[in-house]
Amino acid sequence: MAHDPTAPLGFGTLAIHGGQSPEPTTGAIMPPIFQTSTYVQPAIAEPLGGVYDYARVANPTREALERNLAALESGKHGVAFASGLAAIESVVKTLSAGDHIVTEENTYGGTTRMFTRVFERLGIEFTFVDSRDPEAVAAAMKSNTRLVHVETPTNPMMRVCDIAAIADIAHDGGAILMVDNTFASPFNQRPLEQGADVTVHSTTKYLNGHSDIIGGALVVRDDALAEEIRFVRKSTGAVPGPMDAWLCLRGAKTLHVRMRQHNAAGLAVAKYLEDHPRVDRVFYPGLASHPQHELAARQMDGFTGMVSFDVGTLDRARAIAEHTQLFALAESLGGVESLISVPALMTHASVPAERRERMGVTDGLVRLSVGIEEIDDLVADLDRALGG
Length: 388
Ligand SMILES: *Cc1c(COP(=O)(O)O)cnc(C)c1O
Description:
This protein is an alpha/beta fold. It is built from 13 helices and twelve strands. Its EC number is 2.5.1.48.
């Protein structure tokens, strides 16, 4: 059958071709790394393409990445940043002192730190809620609420929130919804399709996928919002370098292949752990035992390689994390190689113990970023470390 050029393309095809075209002077199939700070203008204030006057403002390598990410997230505009936190920061910077943000209490630690220690000082107000309960989000809305920020699944407890329900609540209150989609990746979840206004990524994680850059991105549909965000980025300067943009684009082209394996390995590891006598609890939205499995199955296409589990005590968590051989002891996630960490001692060490417990981050919690090595080897490594 002939290819129907109007048929929507599948995710894996978009990952490779979305927003891409050969470089016009040579036909190079990958965009060159435009390693330049400025551009020669043919006449005063007449930059080529109307935009290429200075590389903080415009860079073709970065734009190739941005078009690709927009395609993967079912968006219209991608905006790339120097880090995930810089991406989130830029959305907050479209607001003004006196504005209010409703945010998930179990969000990435660096996001909470930026909100409470940088933006509260600058006059932005925050209310932290458990966004698993849409009613809690609704109850926190105020007349000056301009932004609702959630993360789903959350780090490291794998809590899930209902994107469509929260988008309605945000919009009813005159606010926009930003969803941190770092953990799911666009292969598994596309928040804009469910009513969110902004998707944010730490591209450091699954999108780049090879643990070799720090990067961030926003994807939006609304032209005016994209314009505002680009204005903030141009004015504050948190742009990624062209080499990092190029690496991220190269990574994104294999996102679907990597994510299929991360999803399969994550589920296999979660099931193995669930049956292990020395494991008290497993937190993985793909398990039927996850309290929000039904919601996760409704809004996600797969459940990633992120798995947390509780082994009861800090000593046991530490012993396991220090005795795996394939799972490397490290923070971060989403790369091809498997990582293991103890949140209470690592990513969440700066959170007061009482608040940590309330978040569910117990002393005995171990977090895995299951990579794409052979599943049997990964399970055997955990089996050795857990003491069979
Ligand atoms: C890592 C991470 C961030 C921060 O991204 P950086 O690239 O490290 O600045 C934000 N949100 C989530 C969910 C993350 O995992």
